[in-house]
Amino acid sequence: AFGHTALAVNDQVYGFGYFSFEDEGLIKSFVSNQMYYDLGLSDFRREVQLAEWQNRTFTVQTLALSETEKNQIIQYLEWHNLPENQSYWYDYFLNNCSTKIRDVINEAWRGLLEAEHSNLSGSTYFSETFPAKNQSLMNLGLVLAYGYPAYVDRTDWELMAFPVYLQNKIAEMSGLKVSTSTVLFQEVPQPPLISWFKTHGALVLIFIIFFILLLFTTTRGMAQKALLIIQSLIGCLILGFWLFSGHVVVGWNFNVLLFSPFAFLLFHYKSIQRLLITSYAVWLVLACWLGAWYFIPFWVLHMMALKRTKINPQ
């Protein structure tokens, strides 16, 4: 979804994105942010063939390195590729397949890469990952999970967590650190409408279905109950991730204002209605301020459900 990067030494390709889905504690490891990935070794031709099969643009960026720098990088890769050293703690933003390579190159260049890219970029984790092309379910998950840290301005160094960003910033360095850059395979674009639907279809379908259900008297009650219960469950999930997971970007997640854990109480307590109205209003202000506008269709649905819900006060 966000590209991939690896270091090629002749025909050997060292990548830090190897992972086994057979881990029995996968979900627990993901939630606690204690996942472990491996350094893996593959063949250059196979990587090109895989990119063609998956319809991904494949670019080769040849670095201008001295013999000393080459040897330092190769020695590190060979050490890391030993069975006892292959695994490493993985973080989606702090320690991933791109930052590992960034750090290796930066060390070989004696800190020059970091020194030239330590200023704020004007971009955020959100702006660099959203929308993920052709990944409509992932886009829902990203916007739902991202808290305030995802919308904070980041340095170029931090944003090199994304492969294409790393590639571009290395190319911009002083001293001609890239000797050649060649596109071996160019992605074949899909028709714009199909690509748009694959990118945003999940949100569109959810909105259309609930909007229609809320319009008709015969289905309105069911849709209201479903929306209030679903948003309460999602709100609890957001709070749980915020408070107990090890992921930095999910902290201070203002989406808990839109997906209130207390929404289901509206069926019994009229006072909850004022709380929800205030909560939704604050969310809308924050969403517009941060540029997190993607869930405004959900805001519309929640307001519709709130307005038409029959309350049985106790």
Overview of the structural elements:
By secondary structure, this protein is an alpha+beta fold. It is 51% helix and 14% strand. It has 13 helices and 8 strands. It has helices spanning 26-31, 44-54, 67-80, 97-108, 112-116, 125-129, 136-145, 156-159, 163-171, 192-215, 217-244, 271-290, 296-308; strands spanning 7-9, 12-18, 35-43, 58-63, 87-90, 120-123, 154-155, 178-185. The longest helix has 28 residues, at 217-244. The model has no long low-confidence stretch (mean pLDDT 93).
Give me a quick take on this structure.
With 314 residues, the protein is an alpha+beta fold. Helices cover 51% and strands 14% of the residues.
Keywords, separated by commas or semicolons:
13 helices; four-stranded antiparallel sheet; 314 residues; two-stranded antiparallel sheet; alpha+beta; single chain; elongated
